[in-house]
Amino acid sequence: MKARLLFDIAKVLLIARWKQTLVAAVGVTFSIAMFISLLGFMTGLNVLLDGLILNRVPHIRLYNAIRPNPEQPVMRDDTYKNAYHFISSVKAVNGRQEIHNSAAIIDYLKNHNKVTGVTPRITTQVFFNDGSIDLSGLIQGIEPMQENKLFHFDDYIIAGAGSDLVKIPNSIILGKTLAELLLTDVGKVIQVTTAKGETFQLKVVGLFQSGVQEYDKAQSFASLSVVQKLMGKTGSYVTDIQIKLTDLNEAPAMAKSFARIFNTDAEDIQTANAQFETGSFIRTLISYAVGITVLIVAGFGIYNILNMMIYEKMDTIAILKATGFSGRDVQKIFLLIALVIGFFGGIVGLLVGFGLSLVIDQIPFVTPSLPTIKTYPVNYDPWFYGIGIVFSLVTTFMAGWFPSRKASKVDPVVIIRGK
Predict the structure, then answer these.
(1) Residue 71: Cβ-neighbour burial (10 angstroms; 0-12, 13-18, 19+)
(2) Beta strand residue intervals within 209-260, DSSP E
């Protein structure tokens, strides 16, 4: 049969039972709209939670680990050369934490085609003096401009600016919780005592809030030169080199390569945050599972409606077959009905889902733990819309396949004789 004739018949059947057609289309529209809005919202939350980690963690960290001396005095004695050595309470070797020739390493990494950015860092433990009370904490020496470029440092500063660390000498940015414990604020001067017992006065030029209270209770930031001065080190002293790559998935292999080339220890983001990777995967899996379940449930609704339509249209099917239409033609007609419902219901569902996403994106979401977030996060990934329309067509096709197959096998003689 000509395709145009089959389209015309399918159109007539759709219009003749327009209420059932509308109910089926609304079912598809609702399922697609919920799929888009729920998946966009849930993956938006996942991106937000992932960002709390990924925005603050390098893909690769170069450092010198503190480890026991592999060669103990007993091993040098010829008497025990061929004996088994059981040594307890082995102390760490007095190795250097400084990365040797760090300036040359940084220059090499900046020119590497798989590296998007690199920045040095120093971490030292200090005591923040609050009257007669000493609060233990950490000061990280950073390059503010590079830190902002690679880790969005300024996004987490709720007072002051990261660039003030370079402009104002002997300055520091405190974690918000730490500042509250010290009863201090921007513009005030605090006193810190180093591990060697030396005391320094530092001016507070900003407050930092990561969203993790325990982190903000002990963390602070200063320029590299200030921390080097606190530790009594030279301007070339660096303990960490933070690296961001063009492809996060290459971090484990490249970490091993850099460790071998630079003779340092290297830690990749997957190894350092294995638990985070697992949690992120499970959250994403749940998001897709919920969305696909909604589509499948809608498919069963379409199946029931088409099934009922076929039972009600037995006379029509018998007449079509009696006038020369084959079983395959009848099957095509009902498949066309299902696909038309899926296509138009899916398109409207995408628009409604996009509208719902826009509404969710405007709902205020203000929490002290996440100062950079003002509204609920929504992910507008076009991939979700592609999945939505494909699943709409696939689901309706499958829902229409079995009823249409049943219609194609109807014997017109039996139907007409029954009438």
Answers:
(1) exposed
(2) 219-223, 240-245
Percent helix / strand / coil, the chain, rounded to 5: 60, 20, 25
DSSP per position, 38-94: HHHHHHHHHHHHHHHHHTTS-SEEEE----B-S--HHHH-GGGTTS-----SPPBP-
Give the Cα separation of 33 and 385 in Å (integer): 10
* Residue 259 structure tokens: 């460790």
- For strand 199-208 and strand 171-175, is the pairing parallel, antiparallel, or unpaired? parallel
Per the structure, the complete domain to which residue 294 belongs is given by 3-54+277-418
Q: What is the pLDDT of residue 88?
A: 67
Interatomic CA distance for residues 386 and 364, integer angstroms? 28
Amino acid at 376: Y
Angle among Cα 194, 195, 197 to the nearest 5 degrees reads 65
Going by C-alpha positions, the residue among 111, 334, 135 that lies closest to residue 243 is 111
Interatomic CA distance for residues 200 and 194, integer angstroms: 8
Q: Output the DSSP codes for 168-184.
A: STTEEEEEHHHHHHHT-
pTM, 2 dp: 0.65
Give the ranges where 122-223 is alpha helix by DSSP (H): 144-151, 164-167, 176-182, 213-218
Last residue of a domain, one of 248, 272, 296: 272
Please say whether the beta carbons of 229 and 196 come within 8 A: no
Are 267 and 172 in a shared domain?
yes
> What is the Cα–Cα distance from 142 to 148, expressed in whole angstroms?
10
State the Cα–Cα distance between residues 221 and 171, nearest whole angstrom: 9
Give 10-residue mean pLDDT values along the chain (419 residues): 71 72 79 84 79 77 76 69 70 70 89 90 88 84 88 84 88 90 89 88 89 82 91 87 88 90 87 68 76 73 69 69 74 79 86 91 76 80 86 79 72 61
Q: Do 123 and 258 share a domain, yes or no?
A: yes
Residues 208 and 349 in one domain: no
